[in-house]
Design brief:
Number of helices: 22
Radius of gyration: 30 Å
Distance between the termini: 57 Å
Helix content: 25-40%
Largest sheet: 7 strands, parallel
Oligomer: single chain
Mean pLDDT: 89
Strand content: 15-25%
């Protein structure tokens, strides 16, 4: 009876193997198991390690060590040879052993390379066990260590080898370096925590549940693996929630963030929108009447911040923006403020309960709460005032402040006789290097020999005082938060007899940003403004939109004022691009020959400084404690900062 069952099972496996072979051939893919000897030679290896006897994931057994018997199997290890062959007879005998009380006892022997396994001895045993859906197979494993290189796959694998020493898991392998540290943090473990057997079993139980939901939603067609997708999940939900949800609840929750899972596989997950949307529907025609009948005529808006306007100039500037749209869009919007929020998650849920149709989170640190409320309430439009955040469910908004910095740089060069100019930067986060470089290029335009000395308010208590002591005649301080505070030493300051005198400063007009976003929703343009390729949308508007302005003091010489006004007009109408000129970075690299056009994404992601800037980015360990959260969140080197346990892995 067992013999007959084993024979019938072979015939079924044979049909599966031949089907796999044909499907692979039709789409031009290799139809057999991979051959390790054909993949690498000794030059690719940095050595071998005997890993001993392990239970290895069956799905990661992808090939054979040598070419022998390769043609007997399809790529999925199912048989290809007729049932009357010697091969089939041995396969059926192994199948009989598997069905009997004896079972298949002998472990196979294989080599592991880059997390995948290649069988040296026991191909038919692997084939039989795979045909019965075995999750794991006992194997004596020899690991081949690839030679180190900067290739992302090699870097990720070296990270995996470190992770394996801690977790002893072959099932979980990430495609990006540093991901395991984020998993440790999300699970509440310290970075060097060694997993217990119970922790490993508990994790795998939840991991397999997640894998099932991932595959049901079509995850196998995405350019990322289950482990990568799990990290996206853990940015919104906890692992405890994963284990407690029913299969239906898990599928629904994963579906709510599926767009973020898809976009995380892209090299450029964020599309920077620099063009202002069409903010009003047409005045006539069928389309106009249709739009006006479908889209809302009134919107309830919530503004959320973890600071009060009286405590934070940043929040105050955004609150002035709220007041602006209440006046400009009177009768079409109702605004409520939720400032000083201590628990952002519950505050945003309360805003939704109060009827909010739009939530503006005005501080970047609220991005985690934004993602949670967006996943729970997909009908609510959620926006975070931050930059380069790869989450499709939450749109982000910022401004091209570097345009204003370019103009104040030109003023600084014109006003400096000694050639010593200071620049106080805020934090080494996305967008800040672009501002430093734009300022430096403005200086270079009017004073080619001048040097910019860099200071960081996130790393020293009085960078402005230090720069003045070192002889800087003019210092670019942090931008004025609101135009009414220009009397303080904000923006570009002249240093005179130990005092600072503001002469010009870029400023944000958040009201213009809010007005344009709200009008886009009222007109329907919002729904037509996605990236077109499922990427996250980041609004980043500049002078043309009115989102950025420059205050110029009357004390400036007439010629300098005229130059500043000329540059202002040119940047606003698009005839002047601050970066459209030859540019070299500090290391001598030619970043532009004067004809290269920097994309918005390239500008926002700049992580280099122009060659007339002295100083670099402060290391994470040198930052003041209050600056570290924002650098973890939006730092130009955020992917290299080891996460802390229980930290949001954004």
């Amino acid at each position: 009876m067992i013999r007959q069952e084993a024979t019938e099972h072979y015939l079924e496996a044979l049909r599966t193997g031949r089907r796999t072979y044909k499907e692979r051939m039709l789409i031009g893919e290799y139809p057999y198991p991979q051959v390790l000897d054909e993949i690498l030679d000794d030059t690719y290896s940095a050595g071998q390690i005997d890993m001993g006897l392990l239970e290895i994931p069956a799905e990661r057994i992808v090939g054979t060590r040598t070419r022998g018997r390769r043609d007997a199997f399809a790529a999925d290890f199912m048989p290809l040879l007729d049932k009357d062959t010697e091969f089939a007879a041995k396969w059926i005998a192994l199948c009989e052993a598997h069905l009997s009380d004896e079972g298949i006892r002998d472990a196979v022997r294989c080599f592991e390379y880059l997390g995948r396994f290649y069988v040296q001895e026991g191909n038919k045993r692997v084939s039989v066990l795979k045909s019965y859906g075995a999750a794991s197979i006992p194997a004596h494993v020899t690991r081949i260590i690839p030679a180190w290189s900067d290739d992302p796959e090699i870097r990720a694998y070296y990270d995996f080898m470190r992770a394996y020493q801690l977790a002893r898991l072959y099932q979980v392998q990430f495609s990006r370096e540093g991901s395991f540290s984020k998993l440790q943090a999300a699970l509440g473990y310290e970075s060097e925590h060694v997993w217990t057997d119970e922790e490993r079993r508990s994790f795998l139980a939840g991991y397999w549940r997640f894998e099932s939901a991932f595959l049901k939603l079509g995850g196998a067609r995405l350019a990322l693996n289950v482990a990568d997708a799990l990290l996206v999940w853990l940015k919104v939900y906890s692992f405890e929630q994963l284990k407690s949800m029913s299969a239906a609840e898990l599928g629904k929750a994963l579906g709510a963030i599926w767009a973020d899972v898809r976009v995380s596989a892209q090299d450029e997950p964020v599309a920077v929108s620099t063009e202002e949307q069409e903010t009003e529907a047409g005045s006539g025609g069928v389309l106009s009447r249709f739009v006006q009948s479908v889209f809302p005529t009134h919107l309830s808006i919530a503004f959320v911040s973890n600071h009060l306007p009286s405590e934070s100039g940043w929040t105050k500037a955004h609150d002035l923006g709220r007041q602006y749209i209440e006046a400009t869009l009177s009768g079409r919007v109702t605004c409520r403020t939720y400032y000083g929020a201590q628990n952002a998650d519950s505050t945003m849920e309360q805003a939704v309960a109060d009827g909010a149709q739009i939530i503006f989170a005005v501080t970047p640190s609220l991005i985690g709460a934004c993602r949670k409320v967006a996943a729970a309430h997909p009908d609510v439009r959620v926006l975070s005032c931050s930059i380069m955040m790869p989450y499709t469910g939450v749109r982000t908004y910022y401004s091209r402040i570097y345009e204003g910095k370019f103009i104040t740089g030109a003023i600084a060069g014109a006003m400096c006789k000694s050639g010593k100019i200071g620049y106080v930067a805020s934090n080494p986060i996305f967008g800040v290097p672009a501002s430093i470089n734009a300022f430096a290029l403005g200086v270079q335009m009017t004073n080619p020999e001048a040097r910019i000395r860099l200071g960081w308010s996130c790393a020293e208590s009085d960078p402005m005082g230090r720069l003045a002591y070192e002889g800087a005649e003019v210092i670019s301080n942090r931008d004025v938060p609101t135009p009414d505070r220009m009397g303080e030493p904000w923006g570009l300051c002249q240093v005179w007899d130990g005092s600072y005198y503001s002469i010009a400063s870029p400023y944000w007009h958040w009201g213009k940003v809010y007005e344009k976003i709200v009008r886009s929703i009222l007109s329907g343009a919002w729904d037509m403004a996605d990236a077109g390729d499922n990427r996250a949308v980041n609004y980043c508007w500049g002078m043309r939109s009115g989102a950025i302005g420059v205050i110029i003091e009357d004390r400036l010489p007439v010629g300098v004022r005229q130059l500043a006004e000329l540059l202002h007009r040119g940047v606003t109408d698009g005839s002047i691009d601050p970066f459209a000129r030859p540019i070299r970075s500090q290391d001598g690299t030619l970043r532009s020959d004067g004809t290269h056009y920097f994309s918005p994404e390239e500008i926002m992601r700049m992580d280099w400084l122009a060659d007339n800037v002295d100083g670099g980015f402060p290391a994470y360990g040198d930052l003041l404690p209050m600056a570290r959260p924002i650098v973890r969140l939006q730092g130009v080197y955020r992917d290299t900062i080891p996460p802390e346990s229980r930290e949001e892995i954004l």
